[in-house]
Specification:
The chain is an alpha+beta fold and about 350 residues long. It has 9 helices and 9 strands. Strands 1-2-4-3-5 form a 5-stranded mixed sheet. A 4-stranded antiparallel sheet has the order 6-7-9-8, covered by helices on one side. β3 (about 140-145) and β4 (about 155-160) form a beta hairpin. It is elongated.
């Protein structure tokens, strides 16, 4: 794997952890109902931005609606590095299954995620597919959830003979179990290693693109920003060592952290350059690719995301501080942000 691909892997790993961290922090600070609402808002936004646009891109245009939906979930998640299965039973019924380990609820973190959060996610995305396709007869039947102790999130898209009511677009049949998965019958993904590595990076970043504005909608601007800052700082601390190794290791001191930050920003798709004036070392960032065109994005989201790098910096060298210029108020739109990360040492 090339150095560029290693960087993409580091960016993917960091933002996957941030997905989990944001959710856990919302559950801790605001409770179960807020956690379910948070994932509903996140996946609703993801659905609105990605679902219909992705169908032709994934070669699913013209397929029966139930099949297109199941294969969309299979392909879109498979290229993101998610453990996922798809079984087409007929033109009107097709299964999707996510066996553990679950990408969204990393490692033992799944123990802290109530089942209502998984339901919120399905209400935001799966239950809205029929409406988006203009097919009122299409719904999703969930037959199991990992967060309820069952061996994976599983269910099927099914097209009936009548229009579904609002409460029928997501239904539950936990006594059913789907057929076995045959990988040879699943849609093929003929991408090379580099394209898959970049797709995994994009997959993780796209969730954070939706989560930061969704958190402010659910918790309010002030509380939402504070929760995001807390989660991002902790995740930056926890993942610093792993991501630093992935980008090839870094030197000690301010110069070393500048190397790390430049590498990670570049891995996220942003332009970053190290500058030095006297003893002052800085990293200049142009743009914020992750938020290009994101609905509802704010400079407050950039400030929360910046806590990733502040958390990482404290682990790299507790004597270092990382400050952001021009300061707390940054330009809008956020995709046009130009800023300067300045490193200073107390030694």
């Amino acid at each position: 794997m090339s150095a560029v691909q290693d960087g993409w892997k580091a960016a993917a790993r960091l933002h996957q952890a941030l997905f989990t961290g944001l959710l856990l922090r919302v559950l801790l600070e605001k409770g179960e109902a807020a956690g379910a609402a948070f994932l509903f808002e996140t996946f609703k936004a993801q659905h609105d931005e990605k679902f219909l646009a992705a169908l032709p891109a994934l070669g699913l245009g013209g397929k029966p609606d139930a099949v297109a939906c199941a294969q969309f979930f299979y392909l879109a998640n498979k290229v993101g590095g998610v453990n996922v299965e798809c079984i087409v039973e007929s033109d009107r019924k097709a299964w999707i299954r996510y066996p553990p380990p679950r990408w969204a609820y990393m490692d033992a973190a799944i123990c802290a995620v109530p089942d209502s959060v998984t339901v919120g996610m399905m209400r935001g995305f799966h239950a809205r597919c029929g409406e988006s396709l203009g097919n009122p007869r299409l719904g999703f039947v969930c037959t199991g959830t990992t967060t309820n102790g069952e061996p994976g999130l599983e269910g099927y898209f099914v097209e009936g003979v009548r229009s579904l009511g609002a409460d029928e677009k997501l239904r539950f049949a936990r006594d059913e179990r789907g057929p076995s998965f045959d990988p040879d019958a699943a849609p093929a993904i003929a991408w090379d290693e580099a394209r898959l590595a970049k797709a995994e990076r994009n997959y993780a970043l796209n969730y954070i693109r939706q989560m930061l504005p969704a958190l402010r909608r659910v918790a309010g601007n002030e509380d939402g920003s504070a929760i995001a800052d807390q989660a991002a700082r902790l995740v930056g601390m926890q993942l610093y060592g792993e991501t630093a190794r992935l980008v090839g290791g870094v030197e000690a001191g301010a110069a070393g952290f500048a190397q790390y930050l430049q590498a990670m920003l570049a891995a996220c798709g942003d332009t970053a350059a190290i500058t030095q004036s006297g003893k002052t070392i800085a990293v200049e960032q142009q743009g914020w690719r992750m938020m290009n065109g994101a609905a509802g994005a704010s400079a407050a989201d950039f400030q929360a995301w910046a806590a990733l790098w502040r958390g990482a910096c404290t682990v790299h060298d507790p004597a270092l501080t990382l400050s952001l210029e021009p300061g707390p108020v940054l330009s809008e739109p956020v995709s046009d942000i130009t800023c300067r990360w300045v490193l200073a040492s107390s030694h």
